[in-house]
Automatic annotation (TrEMBL):
Protein name according to UniProt: Protein big brother
SUPFAM superfamilies linked to this entry: Core binding factor beta, CBF
An individual GO BP term: regulation of transcription by RNA polymerase II
Pfam families: CBF_beta
Domain of life: Eukaryota
Coiled coil: 78-127
Gene Ontology CC terms: core-binding factor complex
Native species: Rhipicephalus microplus
Recorded family membership: Belongs to the CBF-beta family.
Keyword terms of this UniProt record: Coiled coil, Nucleus
Length: 153
């Protein structure tokens, strides 16, 4: 069996145009059967933009198809994803900034309240230990009530 015989018995898709002869001798394109539907659809599968190309025979419910990477759609989806991630990151930064401002304001308010309470306690402690003679209003009220309640014997 010679090289030409081996080529003749091999699959037709492996032949070159030179081996098949001029294109005029090629088989004319036939119209697809009416029950055959050709489909071309782009979608995202597992996070990858793909394009399905194929056909389905509606009578036999079988067909052939393939998935191809859709580079143009992939670039578009990637740009949309990057914009969305940047938007989320900006919103997160804004939220964290608001949280820091709220915490700082809350801490300042708590420190002011604590300082006020500490000053009041120190003043009361000095007065009770015999410090400067400015009795608190509640203490003078207590003394006047005690003297009023005493009865002569």
């Amino acid at each position: 069996m010679g090289a030409a015989d081996r080529r003749a018995s091999s699959f037709a898709a492996a032949w070159t145009v030179d081996e098949l002869g001029p294109l005029e001798h090629a088989r004319p394109m036939q119209a697809p059967p009416p029950s055959r539907v050709h489909i071309k659809s782009s979608f995202i599968m597992n996070g990858v933009c793909v394009r399905y190309r194929g056909w389905i025979d509606l009578d036999r419910l079988d067909g052939v198809g393939c998935l191809e990477y859709d580079e143009e759609r992939g670039r578009l989806e990637d740009a949309v994803l990057r914009d969305q991630i940047e938007c989320y990151n900006q919103r997160l930064r804004d939220f964290e900034e608001k949280q820091r401002a709220f915490r700082a304001r809350h801490e300042r308010q708590a420190e002011a309240e604590l300082e006020s309470i500490t000053l009041k306690r120190r003043a009361l402690s000095r007065q009770l230990r015999g410090g400067p003679r400015d009795p608190p209003a509640s203490l003078s009220l207590l003394v006047s009530c005690a003297s009023f309640c005493e009865r002569p014997k």
